[in-house]
Design brief:
Elements lengths: L1 H9 L4 H15 L5 H9 L8 E3 L2 E3 L3 E3 L10 H5 L5 E7 L12 E4 L4 E4 L8 H8 L7 E5 L10 H12 L5 E5 L14 H17 L6 E5 L5 H14 L3 E4 L19 E4 L3 H14 L6 E4 L5 H10 L3 E4 L1 H6 L2 H13 L1
Parallel strand pairs: 3-4, 3-13, 4-7, 7-8, 8-9, 9-10, 10-12, 12-13
Antiparallel strand pairs: 1-2, 5-6, 6-11
Helix pairs in contact: 6-7, 7-8, 8-9, 9-10, 10-12
GO molecular function, one term: dihydroorotate dehydrogenase (quinone) activity
Catalytic activity: (S)-dihydroorotate + a quinone = orotate + a quinol
Keywords: Cell membrane, Flavoprotein, FMN, Membrane, Oxidoreductase, Pyrimidine biosynthesis
Length: 339
């Protein structure tokens, strides 16, 4: 029903406006008596064979929602009922910021892709904390970044602020230095500043009564030498894993009218490259750390390929928009068939 009826209607409107409309619609839907149980029956696959224990956390299934969809933790409870095993909120920054000027979100229908240049638009970490304090049983990842006005040589302070603020309300952290939409942010992926940033957060982590897993989200545009640096950095700082990958700045092979828009590209064109990065990291590190695979998952087979390449968990974003919640069920059902 989603692909044949709802998606054609939704895709007629501006993508950012429809995103907010969808949020309010889902929120209203779940206020209808019995709706939650119907949604759960339609899309959830509950089976202990789907459970995964990764970096010390128990996931009820390995299919998560990637950061960027529920930036401000406004809809994580409702979204969890569609069958996700975990929800990643953010990217959040210390202070609220509007992000880049609109229009900043573009569908590439022919390529089954999206280009965004949102620019970490969010209400600030304090707002997210208030909402997450109401969480009861949703496994939450906190994706953290720096404010646009913060210079790179002071960026570590922004990550510290977000880390401390979110510590008691998330289950794991993701350090985002790979978005292409905040000027200069990807420079923090260089070996020296990245090692310093992650080591600082690990020192803070060690001071807590019980530490939380810290993951690094990387770009798909890194060279092999840079990926080898990532492996070294993970070993040096002893962080818990890597999310591969964020959006790409590549436009290779695109056919859609919006293909030249500036920003990060996600969706089907990223499928192959993100899987290549996962396989490279897994093989070259000798499976030394867990990987969450994200990028171009539009089918159960896409998810299985990422798991075969070395991913312990997977995340959806653009595939969820194009395929709907049935995709979550399809992946979990296929995983059971493979079990």
């Amino acid at each position: 029903m989603y692909k044949s009826i709802l998606r054609p209607i939704l895709f007629k409107s501006d993508p950012e406006e429809i995103h907010h409309f969808t949020f309010s619609s889902v929120r209203r839907l779940f206020k209808v008596p019995g709706s939650k149980n119907i949604i759960k029956k339609l899309y959830q696959v509950n089976d202990t064979r789907l459970e995964r224990e990764v970096f010390g956390l128990k996931f009820k299934n390995p299919v998560g929602l990637a950061a960027g969809f529920d930036k401000d933790a406004k809809l994580y409870k409702e979204l969890s009922h569609f069958g996700f095993g975990f929800i990643e909120i953010g990217t959040v920054t210390p202070k609220p910021q509007p992000g880049n000027p609109k229009k900043r979100l573009f569908r590439l229908k022919e390529d089954q892709a999206i280009i965004n240049r949102m620019g970490f638009n969010n209400g600030g970490v304090a707002e997210a904390v208030v909402r997450l304090q109401k969480n009861k049983n949703v496994l939450i990842g906190g994706n953290i970044g720096k404010n646009k006005v913060t210079p790179n040589d002071e960026a570590v302070n922004d990550y510290i602020l977000c880390f401390n603020a979110l510590f008691n309300v998330v289950d794991y952290f993701v350090v985002n230095v790979s978005s292409p939409n905040t000027p200069g942010l990807r420079e923090l992926q260089d070996k020296e500043p990245l090692t310093k940033l992650l080591a600082t957060l690990q020192d803070l982590n060690a001071q807590k009564e019980k530490r939380k897993p810290i993951l690094l989200k990387i770009a798909p545009d890194l060279t092999e030498d840079q990926l080898l640096d990532i492996i070294d950095i993970v070993a040096t700082t002893k962080i818990d894993g890597v999310i591969a990958t964020n959006t790409t700045i590549s436009r290779e092979g695109l056919t859609s009218v919006n293909k030249e828009e500036i920003g990060g590209l996600s969706g089907k064109p990223l499928t192959k490259r993100s899987t290549e990065v996962i396989r490279f990291l897994s093989e070259r590190s000798n499976k030394a750390f867990p990987i969450i695979g994200v990028g171009g998952i539009h089918s159960a087979q896409d998810a299985l390929e990422k798991i075969e390449a070395g991913a312990s968990l997977v995340q959806l974003y653009t595939g969820f928009i194009y395929e709907g919640p049935q995709l979550i069920k399809d992946i979990n059902t296929e995983l059971l068939l493979q079990a």
